[in-house]
Design brief:
- α1 crosses α2 and α2 crosses α3.
- The relative contact order is 0.12.
- The protein is 18% helix and 16% strand.
- The radius of gyration is 33 Å and the shape is rod-shaped.
- The chain is α+β, with helices and mostly antiparallel strands.
Length: 176
């Protein structure tokens, strides 16, 4: 049986939901929280994407009762929105296991900008300013014969790969 995800019209800011984070898609582990922003326009077959008040982003898999009014087995109701860690409040659903809510001081910082430079590895082959770079044969011949075209020098180097042989041919071309 396929379980239907809540529609966007059922969601609003402050709604208590269970979301599936992208990182938890394989395990199916759900995270509980309160909707801060609705990020998807309209409905989505895998759930409407929302940002929770703690900054986490995921797709809504189910609605949950307001934690302040969740009944306990002893007949009372919970007055704390967050159950005590390790209290066994996580429950198994047809979609996955609910993750115990985190205390506010352990929430990830939602105001973290990521740029492309965060993923660029520094080039280790960069030369320091005091290192001397040896000139290539092409560069040496272009410096010795500035009036000749670089493509002609490159063509000569294909047939005459040593510096001495290429210089002799180019000198002959220049004096002829």
């Amino acid at each position: 049986m396929v379980e239907m995800v809540p529609r966007q019209k059922e969601l609003q800011r402050g709604t208590h939901v269970n979301i599936l984070l992208k990182a938890d898609q394989r395990s199916g582990k759900l995270t509980s929280g309160k909707v801060h922003d609705i990020l998807t326009r309209g409905d989505h077959p895998h759930g409407v994407k929302v940002r929770l008040s703690n900054g986490q982003i995921g797709r809504v898999q189910s609605l949950r009762a307001n934690p302040a009014s969740v009944p306990h087995a002893d007949g009372g109701t919970s007055s704390s929105p967050l159950p005590a860690p390790g209290s066994g409040s996580a429950r198994k659903t047809t979609i996955g296991t609910l993750q115990e809510p985190q205390a506010p001081d352990t929430w990830p910082n939602p105001v973290h900008s990521t740029s492309l430079m965060d993923y660029v590895k520094p080039n280790k082959s960069r030369l320091s300013s005091n290192q001397i770079v040896p000139m290539s044969l092409q560069d040496q011949l272009e410096k010795a014969f500035p009036d000749l075209d670089a493509s002609l020098i490159a063509a000569i180097l294909v047939d005459y790969p040593t510096l001495e042989a290429a210089e002799e041919v180019l000198y002959t071309l220049c004096t002829a």
